[in-house]
Amino acid sequence: MKIGIYGSSFNPITNGHLWTANTVAHRQKLDKVIFLPSSNKRMDKSITTQDFHRIEMLKLAIDGNEKFEYSDYEMKANVGTYYTYYTMEYFKKLYSNDEVFFIMGADLLQEIPDWKYSEELIKNNRFIVMERNDINMYKVIAGSVLLRRYEQQFILMGKGIVNEISSSYIREEFEFGGDPRYLLPEAVYQYIRENQVYII
Known about the structure:
six-stranded parallel sheet; alpha/beta; 200 residues
C-alpha cells in the first residue's frame, strides 16, 4: 500500500484539511491517509484544546471515507519522542511492507531544516508537499543546502485552486461570536456548538 501520514494540530479540523488529504490521496494514488493530531507537549505549538475534543472532531470529520483513518500516536508519545523523526520511524515499522509518506504544506517545507533530527528525517523519508499561497517550493529547496542535498525525497504538488482555511481563524470566529459554519464539516461545527469548545 501507499500510505500518507498527515500531521497537524487539527484544532479544529477544517474543510481545507479534508480537501488537501483527498486531493493528495487521489493524485498520488494513496491507499490510506492517516490523520495525526500533534502532541500538546510540543514547544513549537500552543494547544489548549483538550485532546479528547480534537480526536472527537477528527473522528466526526473523516467518518464515511474508507481511505481516511486517524492515530493518536503523537498525543500519547512520551516527552521527547513526539518529534516527526520518531513518528515516521514508528509508522514505517508498523507498515514495514508499504510505502509511507509524510504529507505537509509548503510552509512546513520552509521550517523542516530547523526541526529536531532534520537531516535524519529528510534522508530517510519521502514527503508530499502541498503548495501554499505565496510560497515558491522550488525556491525554498534551492535556498537550503539540506533540502537541495535530498531534493529527491520531496514530491511537490500544486493545488490548482486556492484553498487556505485557517484553524486559528475558525477558533477566533467562534471566540468572538462569529459563525464560520461553512469552513468546516457540519458535524464538527455542531460538536463545537454543543460542547462550547471554542466559545467563550
